[in-house]
Amino acid sequence: MEITLEQPARARLITGEEDVPVPATLRYVSTDPLAVHVAFPPEVTLAGEDVTWTFARSLLADGLDGPAGWGDVHIWPSGRARTVLEFHSPYGLALLQFDTAPLRRFLVRTYAVVAPGAEDLGPMVERCLHELTEQP
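and the corresponding structure tokens:
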């Protein structure tokens, strides 16, 4: 049975001048147990459409306690009460600051659905293999 968790979150886009409030939605789906998703509505994206960033749940956990990440997503604490998520795309770089407590609560909620280390990757591997071998 698939379980989906969603939690609204408020972020601030860090700019050179004035920080801009940005709504976001944190999402976790039990059928993709290693990933978390951060979705942004069309009105706050350059593309003018929904944008979702997907990255490792362990990256979020690590980034809440210290600098973590490589590639397109980096996460680090900013003081005791804030966490910065840095997203790299072909369009540029976005720095978003979140309150740490809601991120931590979300992470704990994901652990209640699928405990760390207890992820059953069988269905995900089967789905990926099916997609790779499926004929157009």
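(Above: one complete record from the training split.) The two ends are 28 Å apart (CA to CA).
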